[in-house]
Amino acid sequence: MEKRTIIVTGGAGFIGSHLVRLLVNKYPDYHIINVDKLTYAGNLANLKDIEDKPNYSFERLDICDFDAILALMQREHVDGVIHLAAESHVDRSIKDPFTFARTNVMGTLSMLQAAKAAWNGEWEGKLFYHISTDEVYGALQFDGTLFTEDTRYDPHSPYSASKASSDHFVRAFHDTFGMPTIVTNCSNNYGPYQFPEKLIPLFINNIRHRKPLPVYGKGENVRDWLFVEDHARAIDIIFHKGKPGDTYNIGGFNEWKNIDIIKVLIRTTDELLGRPEGADDDLITFVTDRAGHDLRYAIDSRKLQRELGWEPSLQFEEGIRKTVKWYLDNQDWLDNVTSGDYQKYYEQMYKNR
Ligand code: NAD
Ligand code: TYD
């Protein structure tokens, strides 16, 4: 098998940890370097099962630290970058847009500049693969239309505006310097190891503790949900077979109104906890809507299916059941993350170095 050295940024986060696990297990001859700053969203406990593998290493670095990233790329002869590190939560972006511009825009630019300097015009066998979101396309109405790769960018939240900007920079490096780049725009992910500020893990945890479930507005917004391992599998296929310069949309053709998902979450969690049906329906609490709340996201991923043969492997009901079961079986992980204990542990560990 060909040898490769790949940086995965954001590998200690939700999607990044699933991707790192897949690559480390599937490609023993590759060297997978996880570059992560370990913000509140990064947690090395997500990678416990592979942390001792010889083809895996971890570098605690800020993607905005151009000098450190360049030195790493040169020292390790990195030939591929899969860039996931980002601030990722819309509600946080409404409170603190600066952090989103710094990490998502300047951080991506710093990664691009480092790759450009390290590769020095020798593009053969190199790839800069940027992971983005469907939120850059804006919001759809309830009219059956889907986001395609040609949909015009129309971001509404500071999060999606920062991701849109980073996508433009990646394409600009392709068009201006000839850097081999790929951008993919994926729909909402769900599954194990997601930080419990996002809808699905937050609500499973709240149901478990019989805490209110804050439903924004009337719960009528629609999201298109994809199991995280299916996203990681798509990234693997696109990294190896995708066409440089291209964009691919990734989604599950799986649209759900928030309120309907929430009912499935309550039913499944109660059933797995042995509680009677309907026991927790009254936890649903309608609260003030999110500012600028996009009505509907839905992805057309037929290009990826047609050209590279990817399709989602899990039915939603099965994926949700697996997900609820994982959070209930891994209460230590949830308690550790919600208490913030893992952050104190890292701070101590790195202070002593
Ligand atoms: P996450 O918030 O769980 O993880 C982000 C990771 O990036 C964390 O480990 C964090 O420590 C790291 N990070 C943040 N700032 C950093 C910095 N300055 N330097 C180095 N590391 C830093 O996010 P996620 O949900 O796994 O999303 C990963 C990527 O996928 C993001 O780019 C996001 O925009 C994109 N995406 C997410 C979804 C989704 O539903 N979660 C959908 C489509 C696309
Ligand atoms: P989220 O998981 O934050 O993902 P995104 O905003 O990137 O789509 O939210 C998913 C949907 O759930 C979104 O329409 C907002 C809604 N939501 C709530 O109604 N209540 C909540 O507490 C959260 C976190 C989200």
Account of the protein in words:
- Helix 1 links the parallel strand 1 and strand 2.
- The strands form 3 sheets. A 7-stranded parallel sheet has the order 3-2-1-4-5-6-10, with helices on both faces.
- By secondary structure, it is of the alpha/beta class.
- The two termini are 36 Å apart.
- It contains 12 helices and 12 strands.
- The model has no long low-confidence stretch (mean pLDDT 96).
- The protein has a domain at 5-193 and 224-254 and 295-315: Rossmann fold (3-Layer(aba) Sandwich).
- The chain has helices at residues 14-26, 66-76, 90-95, 97-119, 158-177, 199-208, 228-241, 258-273, 302-308, 316-329, 331-339, 341-351; strands at residues 5-9, 31-36, 56-60, 80-83, 127-133, 181-186, 188-190, 213-216, 222-227, 247-250, 255-257, 284-287.
- The site of nicotinamide-adenine-dinucleotide (NAD) has 29 residues, from helix 1, helix 4, strand 5 and strand 7.
Q: Care to give the gist of this entry?
A:
The chain is an alpha/beta fold. It has twelve helices and twelve strands. It is 44% helix and 16% strand.
